[in-house]
Write a structure and sequence with these properties.
There is one protein chain. The protein is mostly helical and about 180 residues long. About 75% of the residues lie in helices and about 0% in strands. It has 2 domains: about 40 residues, no CATH class; about 140 residues. Helix 2 packs antiparallel against helix 3 and helix 3 runs antiparallel to helix 4.
């Protein structure tokens, strides 16, 4: 079932237009409507995003929870009295990067949550035959998903940077241990 310029359901499926297959006496057919630039929206488009957005939210929520646990662990290590100043600085730098990552995941969750609200609003408008509202809500859903995914991409880049920092510190420690063994 598709929206057309004249509303829902499609003009061709109305009983008064059901002559010889329904398409002959329609004022607007699908090709004319698309040619004039009117958007077509189907329930399939809304339905595809309906389970996808919550799954993305769940995955990001797991990421948020694991980042929170890592931050607590690093914070506890930072307050140990046996650490050298360089080790404390490295832990502090890692905590700063993780705090940025937490904010990015939080913003990503926020925008994906809003996109779910607008996707649900699209469904509501679709059912209540409000074509323009449904199209606006669907466009907003997609825009909010794009914003949330952009935040997620930036967070992924930061996670790679944090991992490289952590590995470089481990390599430096490994070199120091090897140098001590040689002497």
């Amino acid at each position: 079932m598709y929206f057309s310029k004249l509303g829902w359901p499609h003009v061709a499926s109305r009983p008064e237009n059901a002559v010889n297959g329904g398409f002959e006496k329609c004022k607007y057919n699908v090709q004319q409507t698309i040619g004039k630039g009117v958007q077509m929206l189907s329930l399939d488009a809304v339905g595809v995003l309906f389970p996808a957005i919550p799954l993305a939210i769940v995955a990001l929520n797991f990421r948020y929870t694991s980042l929170a646990g890592l931050m607590r662990e690093l914070h506890a290590q930072l307050h140990k009295k046996l650490l050298k100043a360089t080790q404390k600085q490295v832990l502090h730098d890692e905590l700063v990067i993780m705090a940025r990552r937490m904010n990015l995941v939080k913003y990503s969750l926020f925008f994906l949550g809003l996109s779910f609200v607008f996707n649900t609003s699209t469904l509501f408008a679709f059912i209540n035959q409000s074509e323009r509202i449904a199209i606006f809500c669907m466009n907003t859903t997609i825009a909010l998903m794009l914003i949330g995914l952009c935040f997620f991409c930036v967070e992924t880049v930061l996670s790679t940077k944090a991992l490289r920092m952590h590995i470089s510190v481990a390599e430096i420690k490994n070199e120091q241990i090897n140098n001590v063994r040689i002497l």
